[in-house]
Amino acid sequence: MEEKEKVSIFIDGNNLYHSLNRINAGKIDYEKLVKELTKERILVVAFYYIAPLDITSDEAKYWKHQKFLAELEKIPKFKIVLCTLRKYQKPDGTFGFEVKGDDIYLANDMLAGAYENLYDTAILVSGDEDFIPVVNTLKKLGKKVENLYFTSSSSKNLRKTCTSYLNIRNILDKIKLEE
């Protein structure tokens, strides 16, 4: 009997959030997303890379985000990887924020899982071209890499490097959050 294919999912949370906002997609059900990407295969783990928000800039938004993360943790085999939120001052005197470390944590987990032979296929939920070297290494290690991408923020080079790719718009109706 042939063994079922094992998959691990790697979600760039910041990239996904901003990409969904750009296309006015509304909220998605992450459990449905995981099931849609896994299909009939075995899910090893789904990683979600994100930084906690800054409580001093908007306490209500911070607690709403904490509640969201707590809900994600209830999803079977779903692992949140907390990164750093860096606050910086813009030239106009206002403050901006950027997530730091998410790409390197994601790349490291993809490589570690491949070297430990934890999965057959990595599913990368990001459009960031910076992942091309990692994808090439995974393919050399005999792994398949699928890319769930967003038209507005996706690298064509990343898609071409991956084994296969899927535009999130093609599954959006299946993964929308029931309000």
Describe the structure.
- Helices cover 37% and strands 27% of the residues.
- With 179 residues, the chain is an alpha/beta fold.
- The chain has a single domain, classed as 3-Layer(aba) Sandwich (Rossmann fold).
- The strands form two sheets. It has a six-stranded parallel sheet, with helices on both faces. The protein has a two-stranded antiparallel ribbon with strand order 4-5.
- It starts with 5 loop residues before the first strand and ends with a helix.
Approximate strand percentage? 25-35%
| CATH-level-2 architecture | 3-Layer(aba) Sandwich
Q: How far do the termini sit from each other? A: 42 Å
Number of helices: 7
CATH topology descriptor = Rossmann fold
Which CATH C-level class is it?
A: Alpha Beta
Mean of residue pLDDT values: 90
CATH-defined superfamily: 5'-nuclease
Q: Name the strands of the widest sheet in spatial order.
A: 3-2-1-6-7-8
Largest sheet: 6 strands, parallel
Name the structural class.
alpha/beta
Low-confidence stretches: none
Tally of separate domains: 1
Order of helices and strands: EHHEHEEEHEHEHEH
Radius of gyration: 17 Å
Helical content band: 25-40%
